[in-house]
Amino acid sequence: MPDSPLSASPYEVLGVASDADDATLRLAYRRALRSAHPDTGGDVVRFHAVQLAWELVGTPDARALFDRGARGGAPAPSREAWAPAAPKPRRDSRPLARTYGHPGGLSRERYLGLIREWAGRGVTVADPYDPALVRSAPRDIRHVLADALAEEASARALSTLGIAYTVWHDVATDAAGHGLPPKLDHLVLGPTGLFAIQSEDWGGPVAMKRGELVGAALDGERPMRALAARAKAIGRAAKVKPTALVIVVPDEHAEESLELGGTNRGAVVALVRRSRLSSAVREGLPGSAHLGGTEVMEVRSRLQVVVRFA
């Protein structure tokens, strides 16, 4: 079970409430194991998830540890894993990409507002990143926090691109008028092109189909279409054209490290695993136009004039 706010708890995997008694928990485990067993037509991934869930809450001692915020005696997703990370001193002197904006800032602001609203008026939320509080929140609130973490992880990867690249985070866009989030997560410019990038965590696998993402976790979303609208709004304002539209997801949510989906208004469309992001940008996407030095400087100048931060 990955340490994501959207990861199902052992109780959710077994289909019981977190305060279920031991007999109910045991019965739910047996039923879940039987229905998920590969020999009876079940799914091997779910079968392993059920087994892991039982390891975490199947005995009184293990359950007590989990309910206190520990998993099987090992550290659980701690508040430090989900709270804003403190800046770390650099250990090398390699030049980093030039970066602007606050990655994940708007998503964290939204999360803090939503979690306090959900807790209720007059209720003091001492620690909005307490794992027990996060696990108990509705999925849409946990999704906002998961997206903030995804944006921050991508920003760390993009910072390693080198001085030839410029990165803008949380870029405001008027595409919000169509019911879309009011920003583009990352805009990256360098010799391998102009990349419009969204960092996402839907809590489940997604795949590319006819230029759009599909998957049960999307719940009807059309994320590539939304990304194209955001990129178009920024490109129109700066009179530039993105060369690539990229959606980044946790490694375990994509079957391939890089999956292409054709083009959208001349921009190559791709689904990329998080661990592959920096190399995909540095190498350039297959079929995506590269930019000459003079062209990079001209595009950067135009973007610097129009870029606003959400």
Automatic annotation (TrEMBL):
Domain (NERD) ranges: 146-257
Start and end residues of each stretch annotated as Disordered: 68-102
Any Pfam family matching the protein: DnaJ
Domain J: 9-70
UniProt-listed CDD domains: DnaJ
Protein name, UniProt field: Molecular chaperone DnaJ
Species this chain originates from: Agromyces hippuratus
